[in-house]
Amino acid sequence: LGNAGTNPATDFVGTTDAQPLVFRTNATERGRLDIDGDLGVGVVNPQERLDVAGAIRLQGTSTGNAVGTIRWNAGGPYHEGNIDGTPTGWVKMQNDVGEVLSQAYTQPSPVTCANGTAVLGPQTGVSSSALITPYWHPNLNRARHQYLFLANELDLTLNQSLNDPTATQGLCAGQPINSIAFRATGVGLRKTYTQIRVRIKHTSVTSLTGFDNTPDPNAQCYFALGETRPGGGATATPAPNAWDVFDLTGPNGSGPFIWNGVDNLLIEVCYAAASGAAANAEVWTTTGLSFNGSYTAGGSACGAPDNSCGPFVAGCAAASNCGTFGGVNIRPVIQFNGVTASAAPATAGLGDYLYYSGGLIVQQTPTFAASTTPYTFQGPGTITAENGVYASGSQLNDHVFDRYFDGRVRPEDADAFGSQRMLPIDDMVDHLAAERHLPTMKGRDAWDAEGGFSLDDLTGQLWRTTETQALYLVELKERADLLEALATERPISIEELPRMRAGIAAMQDLSESEKARLIQGLESRTTKPADAR
């Protein structure tokens, strides 16, 4: 321990041996300066120049702008540090971005559309209850069943995100559904129906508390007389353990159903049964729905189905309160056949994420956002980028051009795009009037249903739109060339002739003889290349 005086060799407070300098108050150690010069506050074995067990509080400001200085800015309020030794070199140290660790997430798998079947459930039970099974078989019974599927169950990506990460099947918007089927379990008996009709349509209903009688011009149905269900055969024989199929495209059907990708889906089974009781046939079911997925009314005094597959109106005459009636949160499992969606189960795990309550401006030029409309700050929750925003999930290809010029898509694109077709230009006006969006772009309803589109999805839509519009321009030019050729006597090149023949053949208002005369006139004016003469 040093002592008083003027000699620097002895004028100090400290130790002269290999021992730390310890500071105590009230006989309790409060600090320690070890033999290496590391200071510990509340720490008996400090590991750095300053090692504190507790918090450090900064108050006031700095005396200068030395690089590496940390101070408290009460006007912020926040801590700041100087990075370049200048008065403007003070940088806020607090991070306004929060971090959440080890949070569960579900990431949907890529979806492909192809011909096949999709079973929408999942199957979690079985039932022969009159309010659930489509095969309710008392004597001389008339019954009406409606079964509801929400759009976020049909859309496989939404289903994996919102409902069931293990789901692997769904429907594809704008693609045909050719048949539907219920899965009988082999329990119960068959029954012959004097009339049976199955309808499928769009609906805005989100829970069945009564029958939905709203019309849908895009509805399709199946209607038959004297059929035995499930599975055919004789009345009162055991029901099969198999799918019972209703073919919308066969002789008893009105045609394939096209789901619009946005609305919910309603399936109605309506029938009048022949005399003679038979045990209800049991079917696969989905239990524990968060809404009424089934609604039924039936009894001998209820109305019978009408004898047509016309536009969806009231369905059959059975009212919502006819005979025995009610809704339940259980629904039969249904198999859809046509162009359906498939994917691997969603990826689930734990991960970390950042969150921020303000906006984000990414700029290379310091004044870009502030001086460039409309890239100025747009408020919390918005992103502005000077040079671009990129994502790696885009799957761009030229399947639109491939089908137009080659007649088919490439093999590697067949699963995802093989069933897609370009809307003929003559149908464009009707589509725009009915849907209010381009056929290659999803509409506002889809935006609302999906909560917006990903950057990759939007890029793909714009890519297909650009290619389709380019082909429309090609078709319009070919039509203009044909009209010009028919209105004049100019020579026709051998390269033009096949396209002009096809254009004349597509003129629906002309008879075959009129088309033949026009084609003959063009052929008479066709010139051959010089090297072919």
Concise overview:
This protein has helices spanning 151-154, 156-162, 368-371, 399-406, 414-417, 428-435, 444-450, 455-487, 497-505, 512-524, and strands at residues 21-25, 28-33, 39-41, 50-52, 70-73, 78-82, 90-92, 98-107, 112-120, 125-127, 142-149, 169-171, 176-183, 191-203, 220-229, 243-247, 257-258, 264-273, 283-286, 294-299, 324-328, 331-332, 334-342, 347-355, 360-362, 383-385, 492-493, 526-527.
Could you characterize what this model shows?
- The protein is of the alpha+beta class and 533 residues long.
- Among the domains are: 119-342, no CATH class; 357-386, no CATH class.
- Helices cover 18% and strands 29% of the residues.
- The chain contains ten helices and 28 strands.
- Strands 9, 12, 13, 16, 17 and 23 form a six-stranded antiparallel β-sheet that branches. A six-stranded antiparallel β-sheet has the order 15-14-18-11-20-21. Strands 1-2-3-4 form a four-stranded mixed β-sheet, with no helix packed on it.
- The radius of gyration is 37 Å and the shape is flat.
Distance separating the two termini: 119 Å
Which structural class best describes the helix and strand composition? alpha+beta
Fraction of helical residues: 10-25%
Spans of at least 5 consecutive residues with low confidence: none
Number of strands: 28
Mean pLDDT: 88
Question: How is the main sheet built?
Answer: 6 strands, antiparallel
> Percent of residues in beta strands?
25-35%
